[in-house]
TrEMBL record:
Highest classification ranks of the organism: Bacteria, Bacillati, Actinomycetota, Actinomycetes, Pseudonocardiales
GO MF terms held by the record: methyltransferase activity
Keywords of the record: Methyltransferase, Transferase
Pfam families tied to this protein: Methyltransf_25
Keyword Ligase: no
Name of the featured protein: SAM-dependent methyltransferase
Domain of life of the organism encoding this protein: Bacteria
Domain Methyltransferase: 57-145
Organism of origin: Pseudonocardia parietis
Amino acid sequence: MTEPAYLTATRGGYDAIAESCAGPFRAALDDAPLDRALLAAFAEMVRRDHPDPLTVEVGSGHGGTAAYLATHGLSVSGIDLSTAMVEFARRTYPEVGFRVGEMHNLDIDDVSLAGLVSWYSLIHVPEHDRPAVLAEFERVLRPGGYVLLAFQVGDDTLHFDEAFGHEVSLDFHRLDPDAVVATLEAAGFGLVARLVRAPEARHAAAPVPQGFLIGRKPAEQASAASGAG
């Protein structure tokens, strides 16, 4: 099967800029107290409801977000499309496992995860493919499992032919929170929390509102399954 062109372009783009964009990308959480608080709260909910808090970050990039979640008690690993990003993350955070993978077709068993994080990775998926991606997230999460999505808010797509001194072809889709909630619910999740952070002029990466959603796979499925035996 031929790979969608946007996946090839996204992989190639991040392979090209993995080293040169490391500084600003890795520092993104350092001066983002609301982001850190949300990640910590997500980790606490996962730990509260799941004795084995197995969690995966899809689109883990340089590895900083997965490493931060690991410091909050989650058994976390990262998956990224870009081999160069995975290699960087492995060198930088050897205590966290990282591997190459693709969010449309996760190499993860059904109903095996307590948590899944997509921290600014859904923004590279065109609208027509987002339902399939969220359905894949639902597949790998246990009943009662949590998903956390982060994205830029808007209705436009930014395209870059050059980034950090390298030739690339990268699309960044800004998303409408209402539309993402509808897609999340259509995939079988209930909405737990929704936050839109106002633009921050001093942050080069956040000149527009930033959206965050936490969804939960219904826990009732667990009760039904246990009663069936």
